[in-house]
Design a protein that fits this description.
One of its GO terms (molecular function) is peptidase activity. By secondary structure, the protein is mainly alpha-helical.
Length: 657
């Protein structure tokens, strides 16, 4: 499957549905106007319309209804301005401590961290719903930088490691496909429409009047009638709003299932989770009072909806899309197996509760009983599962295991994560390091400077390919720092790195990644949205980005030139391109180029990423430097790191021990 093209298709259909949502709001406004005209536009002499009063009445009612819906929607969205964390806590989620000793919680953290490293995103905030026996999960936030992933207790009790991995990969796809921002907007719009019903109910109950009272009580009667009609309009509007909400969610859930397969490279994990939902009594249902408000965010349906209101495709249809050979009698066998074993034994089937530093992951392989005929018939939803050699999540776990224990521990707490970030930015040259230490001491004091210096001395044991994963692991702790301290960290990182007149690539990548994610985390609701630019408008930016990748991935100018030409021909076939040696001060133009490319349309971003892969593959060797650059570029473009079997294999070979 071409995932960028599929994302574009789903986003296009979602835009149509959102336009229908807006049309529903306008229809509500029109209906309220008609009610106002009917109830308040008549004089005491029944049937005689006060024509001069009609236009002002309609104008007032239109402005009032639009103001009410938009104001309530704005208030609701504003209440979620902290991003995923606010949504998770509102539903009742409890944070999973980084130092938890609960084996199931540790497994959850390990799985989420592995998927984050594999996809090139910062580790999200991790929550669980302790009183929810159903199997469900959701991702919330405006971008990857403020994302939170929340799972139910049922996920921890019933899912094996592979199945939990499939569910988490599904939720990460919502992060990477840009679904989370739309989900929060839908929550706001539904809240605004519902407010109309609430006001109508209050008016109907109290018999309040929107006009002067008449001697015969007509004013009170008109207020009561207006309240009833307003309640009816609000309820009908909310009905259609829920229909559109469900349609938007269904279109995106199909892509999320396919993306989960893309991450895990096997279908049995996510399909196994769906099968357990089908056989468990609680299924994927939620008990939370706000379950309908977040229904479109969840992994499975939160209630027994009919087909109109279902936020997900039918369960059996989702399973068959992933496993065309599935037969319903398998569910009876699974139910018998689950009754015969306890949740703890189910976890032990393929799971592991050992710490990340010593864990060896089970192989992710295509089931042996599947023949060539079935593979040939495999639907587009899971196109690359026939490549079992590409074990992207195993590779992510290997990178995480390469992090020394004391640095991994430091990444888990806010203050030590701050010192770790500064340590990673410090130079290996003694003279420059002394200047950097003074700058750190001036900004944060001697204690932070001392801690950063010790970590800087220890980072020599850190494999180069594990630097970015370590930054991803530290991100949740860094977000817990006060806003002023975060701002000081960003400023200090810039100053510390600029001490070296020729900033190294490693330092540049680190600071670029931290700055971007932390700035988005500080103001989640201002995170970038999909761009509209076409590729030809950004040709110079593409040329510079490809030149940086080609230069740092090659041993000489000739090899760099060949790699660059391959990349440019991939992006702009048939258009002549002139190679220019990369200047020494490339960092600032490179920053501008990445910001420019982030404004591209999703399909254009795919072309850029494929062009970069062409440059990386040009010499047949993929180094940790190229991998690190690709991670930073993909993060800057708000794209997932592409899953490429040949890239991953070479990275493992090239990573120093």
């Amino acid at each position: 499957m071409d995932f960028f093209a599929e994302q574009a298709r789903v986003r296009s259909s979602s835009r149509v549905l959102v336009l229908l949502f807006i049309a529903a709001v306008l229809a509500i406004v029109f209906a309220v106007d008609m009610v106002v005209l009917l109830v308040f536009g008549y004089s005491r002499h029944f049937g005689k319309l006060l024509a001069p009063h009609a236009p002002p009445l309609l104008m007032i009612s239109t402005v009032a209804v639009l103001g009410l819906i938009s104001g309530c929607a704005w208030y609701r969205i504003r209440s979620l301005s902290e991003g995923g964390k606010a949504v998770a806590e509102e539903v009742g989620g409890q944070p999973v401590p980084p130092d938890t000793q609960d084996p199931r919680m540790r497994q959850l953290r390990n799985v989420i961290e592995e998927v984050a490293i594999a996809s090139g995103t910062p580790v999200p905030d991790i929550y669980f719903l302790p009183d929810e026996p159903g199997i469900n999960a959701f991702a919330a936030g405006y971008s990857a930088s403020d994302a939170a992933i929340c799972v139910t207790q049922g996920c921890l009790d019933h899912l094996t490691r592979d199945e939990l991995q499939g569910v988490i990969a599904h939720e990460f796809s919502h992060v990477l496909n840009g679904d989370m921002r739309l989900n929060i907007r839908l929550m706001g719009l539904l809240f605004g429409i519902m407010a109309l019903s609430v006001i109508g109910r209050q008016l109907a109950w109290s018999g309040s009047s929107y006009s002067s009272r008449d001697d015969d009580g007509g004013g009170r009667g008109r207020g009561f009638a207006f309240g009833l009609l307003l309640l009816a309009i609000g309820s009908i509007g909310h009905f259609f709003g829920r229909l559109i909400q469900a349609a938007v969610a269904r279109s995106r859930e199909e892509l999320a299932d396919a993306s989960a397969v893309q991450f895990t490279r096997q279908t049995r994990g996510i399909a196994g989770a769906l099968k357990k939902i089908a056989v468990l009594e609680d299924g994927s249902r939620l008990q939370a009072a706000s379950r309908h408000e977040v229904a479109h965010m969840m992994f499975g349906d939160v209630d027994d909806f009919n087909a109109w209101f279902a936020t997900h495709p039918p369960l059996l249809e989702r399973i068959r899309t992933l496993e065309p050979w599935f037969r319903e009698h398998e569910l009876a066998q699974l139910e018998a197996q689950m009754h015969a074993s306890s949740p703890g034994e189910q976890q032990a089937e393929t799971g592991s509760d050992t710490p990340a530093a010593t864990r060896v992951l089970p192989p992710l392989e295509w089931p042996g009983q599947i023949g060539a005929a079935v593979l040939a018939a495999q639907p587009a939803a899971a196109p690359q599962v026939a490549a079992p050699k590409d074990k992207v999540l195993e590779r992510a776990a290997t990178l995480q295991q390469g992090i020394p224990t004391h640095l991994d521990d430091a990444a888990r707490q806010p203050e030590s994560a701050l010192a770790l970030s500064l340590a990673l930015a410090m130079s290996e040259h003694a003279e420059l390091q002394e200047k950097q230490k003074r700058l750190i001491a001036n900004a944060f004091g001697d204690d932070v400077q001392s801690a950063a210096s010790k970590m800087a001395a220890a980072k020599a044991s850190l494999p180069p390919a594990s630097r970015m994963p370590l930054v991803a692991l530290a991100f949740p702790a860094l977000k817990q720092l006060p806003q002023g301290r975060l701002q000081t960290l960003l400023e200090t990182l810039d100053v510390v790195v600029s001490v070296d007149p020729l900033v190294g690539l490693d330092d540049y990548c680190l600071v670029r990644l931290l700055r971007m994610h932390l700035l988005e985390a500080l103001k989640p609701n201002r995170a970038p949205i999909d761009g509209r630019k076409k590729l030809p408008a950004c040709r110079d930016g593409v040329a510079l980005v490809c030149a940086v990748v080609a230069t740092y991935g090659s041993n000489d100018d000739g090899a760099a030139r060949r790699a660059w030409l391959l990349a440019m021909n991939q992006a702009f076939p048939g258009i002549p391109a002139n190679w220019q040696t990369l200047p020494l001060d490339w960092q600032t133009p490179f920053d501008r180029a990445l910001d420019d490319l982030d404004d591209l349309m999703p399909v254009a971003k795919e072309i850029v990423i494929q062009s970069l892969l062409a440059a990386i593959r040009a010499d047949g060797v993929v180094t940790p430097t190229e991998t690190e650059l690709l991670r930073v570029i993909c993060a800057s473009l708000h794209c997932a790191v592409p899953v490429q079997a040949d890239v991953g294999a070479q990275v493992e070979v090239q990573t120093p021990t």
